[in-house]
Design goal:
The complex is a heterotrimer of chains A (308), B (228) and C (250).
Chain A lengths: L13 H11 L18 E7 L2 H16 L3 E8 L2 H10 L4 E5 H8 L8 H11 L4 E3 L11 E4 H7 L14 E5 L10 H8 L3 E6 L6 H8 L5 E3 L5 H5 L2 E3 L12 E6 L4 H13 L2 H13 L4 H11 L5
Parallel strand pairs in A: 1-2, 6-7, 6-8
Antiparallel strand pairs in A: 3-10, 4-10, 5-8, 5-9
Chain B lengths: L1 H5 L1 H35 L1 H14 L4 H12 L6 H25 L3 H9 L4 H31 L13 H9 L2 H29 L13 H8 L3
Chain C lengths: L1 H11 L10 H33 L3 H12 L3 H12 L4 H24 L3 H9 L4 H31 L12 H9 L3 H29 L2 H9 L26
The chains are: A alpha/beta (308), B mainly alpha (228), C mainly alpha (250).
C-alpha cells in the first residue's frame, strides 16, 4: 500500500474522487484553507507528490519563491494524484510540480500519444478553468520499458520493437496497474508482436524491490521512470521508444490564480534551467548520498544563480 | 545510518505528528467502546452479535476503508476527520470485546450484593462494575494503543504525515536507515503509550497495584476481582 | 450502498472467476499464504508458549517482546525483508509469521496458566508425572484458549496477507492494489469483501472447533457459571472463551 505517488501517476478516474470531493463541498473543513490572513506577503501553498524526486522540485519552487519574499506553506508528500488533484482543483494548493503526459492522461484518459509540444498544448486545453500550467522544463521523468544490460546484450535489444528478438518467456513485473495501462503488455503484443508470458506485481513503482527482481532475473522486463538513478546504478537499459508508446512527461508547475506575475516569472526561470541531466543527478544525490531535498534544492538554485 | 543523524528534526516532527493522530483515537476508542460493551454484555442476545461483528470488522483491510470512508462521510481523503474515524473504528472493534469481557468478569455475587445494598442500576455500574472491570479494560486499552500506533503508519499513503512516510520514502530511495527510523519510532511511541496507560491504571485502580502482575493474565484475572 | 453493490457485482461477474488472474486463483493464493504462515507460526509459538506456561519462566520477557512485535508495521517489515531476499512468497511469509506469533503464544501460555493450580496439584497427588500433567491436564484444559489464540492470529493473517501482493506474492491484495491504482473502486471493494468473507469463514470454522474440542467437564462448568473470556492483554480479538475451571472463580 505504500506506493509512490508517482507510480499512481496516471489516475484515470481522478475525476471520480474529484466529483466526490466536489459533492462534499465545504463540508470538508480543510486545514489549509485560511493561513494567509496575518502575513504581509502572499502565502502560497506548495504541494508535492509522495515521491522524493517530485519533492525536490517542489522544494526548488519553494526556496526560489521564499527568496523573492513570498511566504510558503509546504504540503509535501501528499499521496497519489487521486488524493491531491482534487485539492489542487479546489484551490487548496497553489503550486504543484506535475508531469505533462501523466497529468493529461489523468484529466483525459483518451489521450494515448503525442510529442512533448502536442501533449503540452492538449494539457493547457484539458485543465479546469481555475488552474493553469506554466512553462514546461526540459527535464522529464517518464515511463519506460527497462531491461538489464545483460538481457539487452543477449538479445541485441535497443528499442521496444526489438523485444521481439527475445526467445525465452518474458515475465513482466511492476505495479499491478501496469497490466492494464495503454502501454502495458497487451500493447507490446499488439503493436510489436512481443509475447509476454506472465505478470508479477511489485508495488513499489519501479523502486529497489522491482530493480532487485529484475537483477535477480525473477522478472525480465519492467517499467522504471527514466529519471530514476537506479537505472544507471544497476546497469539497466531503458529501451528507446521511437514510436511514442509512452507519453512525454516534462516537469511543469501547475498553479492556481493566486500565483501572480512575479511568481510566474520565477517558476518559468526554474523550468528554463531544469535540464534532464540535472533531474537525474539530483535524484541520485537523494538516493545515493541520502541528501535532504532542502540541501539538493539550495545547491541547484545556487549553481544556476537563481537565488540572487 | 547517517540518514538518521542528518534528519533528527524530521524524525522528531513526524513522531509528534504520529502522536497527534493516535492519542485522540485511543481515547475515543475507549470512550465509545464502554457503552457498546455494556450493551453487548447486558443483553445475552446482543453479546454474540456485537462481538462477532467487531471481530470481523477488524479483518477489513485498512486502505480500502480509508478510501471508502470519505465517500460515506463526505470528507476529503486527507482530512483528519477521515483518518481519525477510520482508526477509531478499528480501535472500537478491538476494545468492545475487552469491555464486554471486563464487565462479564465481575463476579455476579458482587453485583448482586451491590444491588442488595441498595445501589441503583447506574451507580452500581459506575461504582462497582466499571471499577471491577478495570483491569480487563486496561489490558484491552493497551492492545488498542499498540495496534493504533502501528496502524497509523498506513495513513501515510493518503498524504497524512505520520511515521509511515519513512517507509514509503525509505523504500523509494532505498535508505534502510530511514525505514528503520520509522519502525523504531513506531515501537517507541507504542511503548511510551503503554507505560502511560499502565501508570494511569495504577493511579485510578490502586487496589490492583499489589497484584498488578496478574492483571494481564487471563487465568488469574478473576482472582484479582474476588478479594475486593 | 451503490458502491457496495458494484463490489458484489464485480465478484459475481463470471469474467473475473477463472484463470491465473481469477478470483479462484487469488483466493487459493491467499489461503495458501495464510496456511503456510499459520503452520510455521504454530510450530514456533505453541511449544514455546507451553514451555512458558508450564514452567512460568520467561513470561515477562515474552510479554514485553510480544508487545513490541505487535507495534511492528507489517509493510515496513515486508519491505525490509524483501530488499534482502527478493520478491515472492518468502518476505510476506516471514513478516506474517512475526505478526501471528504473539497471539498464538499468548493463547498457548495463558491456556496453561488458566488451569487452576489446585487441579495440577491434584494431578500430581494422584501420581501423574510432569509429562502426564502437561499432556493430560494442561494441554486439554488449555485448548480453548489456544484455539482462541489461533483464531485471532488467523484473522490477523488473513487481513494482513493483502500486503503479500506488494512484493509479488499475489493473493486478494492484488484487487486492492490494482483497484486503488486505477481508481477502480468496485474492484477494490470486491477484494475487501472477499477478504472479509474469508475472515468470516475462518471465524465460523474456529467457533465450531472451539465447541467440539472443549473437554466435556469444562463445558458443564462453563454452562453453570458463564464467565467472560478475559482476553485483553496477551490475546486479542479471539473467539468467546470461557473461564475453564469452575473452581477458578472461588
Amino acid at each position: 500500500m505504500f506506493t509512490a505517488g508517482k507510480g499512481r501517476r496516471v489516475a484515470i478516474g481522478a475525476v471520480v474522487v474529484g466529483a466526490v470531493i466536489a459533492l462534499s463541498g465545504c463540508a470538508s473543513g480543510d486545514p489549509l484553507a485560511d493561513e494567509n490572513s496575518s502575513s504581509d506577503g502572499e502565502t502560497l501553498v506548495v504541494g508535492s507528490q509522495q515521491y522524493y524526486s517530485n519533492e525536490i522540485v517542489a522544494e526548488i519552487y519553494s526556496q526560489a519563491l521564499e527568496n523573492a519574499g513570498y511566504t510558503i506553506d509546504r504540503q509535501f508528500q501528499i499521496g497519489a494524484r487521486e488524493v491531491y488533484l482534487p485539492e489542487v482543483e479546489e484551490g487548496n494548493i497553489d503550486v504543484f510540480p506535475e508531469y505533462t503526459g501523466s497529468l493529461l492522461q489523468a484529466l483525459d484518459p483518451s489521450v494515448t500519444s503525442g510529442t512533448s509540444d502536442e501533449v503540452y498544448s492538449q494539457l493547457v486545453e484539458a485543465l479546469p478553468e481555475e488552474l493553469s500550467v506554466l512553462d514546461p522544463a526540459e527535464a522529464s521523468d517518464q515511463n519506460s520499458w527497462t531491461v538489464t544490460q545483460a538481457f539487452a546484450d543477449q538479445y541485441d535489444l535497443t528499442d521496444i520493437a526489438s523485444l521481439s528478438n527475445v526467445t525465452e518467456p518474458i515475465t513482466v513485473g511492476g505495479n499491478s496497474e501496469l497490466q492494464t495501462r495503454p502501454y502495458g503488455p497487451d500493447a507490446l503484443q499488439e503493436l510489436y508482436g512481443v509475447t509476454v508470458a506472465g505478470f508479477t506485481a511489485v508495488e513499489d513503482s519501479g523502486g529497489p524491490l522491482t530493480v532487485k527482481a529484475l537483477v535477480d532475473n525473477t522478472i525480465q522486463l519492467t517499467n522504471i521512470y527514466t529519471a530514476s538513478p537506479l537505472i544507471e546504478a544497476n546497469d539497466l537499459i531503458a529501451l528507446e521508444d521511437p514510436d511514442g508508446l509512452f507519453l512525454p512527461d516534462n516537469i511543469v508547475p501547475v498553479v492556481s490564480d493566486k500565483v501572480d506575475a512575479d511568481a510566474t516569472d520565477i517558476l518559468n526561470e526554474i523550468s528554463a534551467a531544469l535540464s534532464a541531466e540535472d533531474l537525474v543527478s539530483m535524484n541520485a544525490e537523494s538516493v545515493d548520498e541520502q541528501k535532504s531535498s532542502e540541501e539538493i534544492a539550495t545547491a541547484w538554485l545556487t549553481e544556476n544563480d537563481l537565488l540572487g | 545510518m547517517n540518514w538518521i543523524g542528518n534528519n533528527l528534526p524530521l524524525i522528531g516532527e513526524r513522531t509528534l505528528d504520529h502522536i497527534a493522530i493516535t492519542a485522540p483515537v485511543i481515547l475515543l476508542s475507549f470512550l465509545i467502546s464502554v457503552p457498546i460493551g455494556w450493551v453487548a454484555n447486558r443483553f445475552t442476545a446482543s453479546r454474540g452479535i456485537v462481538l462477532s461483528a467487531s471481530g470481523v470488522f477488524y479483518a477489513i483491510p485498512s486502505l480500502p476503508l480509508f478510501v471508502a470512508l470519505p465517500v460515506i462521510l463526505g470528507t476529503g481523503l486527507r482530512s483528519p476527520v477521515n483518518v481519525t474515524i477510520g482508526l477509531t473504528l478499528y480501535g472500537i472493534a478491538l476494545m468492545v470485546r475487552s469491555t464486554a469481557d471486563g464487565l462479564a468478569s465481575v463476579d455476579p455475587d458482587v453485583t448482586q450484593s451491590a444491588t442488595a445494598m441498595g445501589f441503583s442500576d447506574s451507580s452500581r455500574f459506575w461504582r462497582v462494575e466499571l471499577p471491577l472491570a478495570g483491569p480487563v479494560l486496561l489490558a484491552g486499552l493497551r492492545v488498542v494503543s499498540v495496534s493504533t500506533v502501528s496502524l497509523a503508519t498506513v495513513v501515510a499513503v493518503l498524504g497524512v504525515p505520520t511515521l509511515g512516510l519513512f517507509f514509503t520514502d525509505g523504500v523509494e530511495r532505498n535508505i534502510l536507515g530511514e525505514i528503520w527510523a520509522g519502525i523504531v519510532m513506531t515501537i517507541v511511541i507504542a511503548l511510551v503509550f503503554d507505560v502511560i496507560i499502565v501508570q494511569l491504571g495504577r493511579l485510578l485502580m490502586p487496589w490492583t497495584r499489589s497484584s498488578s502482575a496478574a492483571v494481564s493474565r487471563p487465568g488469574r484475572r478473576t482472582r484479582v476481582v474476588a478479594p475486593v | 450502498m451503490n458502491l457496495l453493490f458494484e463490489g458484489f457485482a464485480w465478484i459475481f461477474d463470471p469474467a473475473h472467476h477463472g484463470g491465473d488472474e481469477g478470483i479462484g486463483t487469488r483466493i487459493l493464493q491467499h489461503l495458501g499464504i495464510t496456511l503456510v504462515v499459520m503452520v510455521i507460526a504454530s510450530l514456533i509459538a505453541i511449544p514455546l508458549g507451553y514451555l512458558i506456561g508450564h514452567t512460568g519462566r520467561g513470561r515477562s520477557v515474552v510479554v514485553a517482546l510480544s508487545g513490541g512485535v505487535r507495534a511492528l508495521p507489517t509493510l515496513g517489515v515486508i519491505s525490509l525483508i524483501a530488499l534482502s531476499v527478493g520478491i515472492g512468497f518468502t518476505a510476506p511469509v516471514i513478516a506474517l509469521v512475526i505478526l501471528a506469533i504473539p497471539s498464538i503464544l499468548a493463547g498457548a501460555y495463558s491456556g496453561f496458566e488458566a488451569v487452576d493450580r489446585r487441579t495440577i496439584d491434584a494431578a500430581r497427588a494422584v501420581g501423574m508425572t510432569e509429562g502426564q500433567i502437561v499432556t493430560r491436564v494442561e494441554v486439554p484444559l488449555g485448548l480453548p484458549l489456544l484455539i482462541g489464540g489461533l483464531r485471532s492470529a488467523t484473522l490477523q493473517v488473513i487481513a494482513t496477507a493483502t500486503l503479500a501482493d506488494y512484493v509479488g506474492a499475489g493473493g486478494l491484495g492484488r484487487y486492492i492494489f490494482s483497484g486503488q491504482a486505477t481508481n477502480d473502486y468496485p474492484q477494490m471493494l470486491a477484494g475487501s469483501i472477499l477478504v472479509i468473507m474469508l475472515a468470516l469463514v475462518s471465524e465460523a470454522l474456529f467457533s465450531l472447533l472451539q465447541r467440539s474440542l472443549v473437554p466435556a467437564g469444562v463445558v458443564a462448568a462453563e454452562q453453570r457459571q458463564p464467565d467472560g473470556e478475559t482476553s485483553g492483554g496477551p490475546t486479542r480479538k479471539s473467539g468467546p472463551r470461557r473461564s475453564l475451571i469452575a473452581g477458578a472463580r472461588r
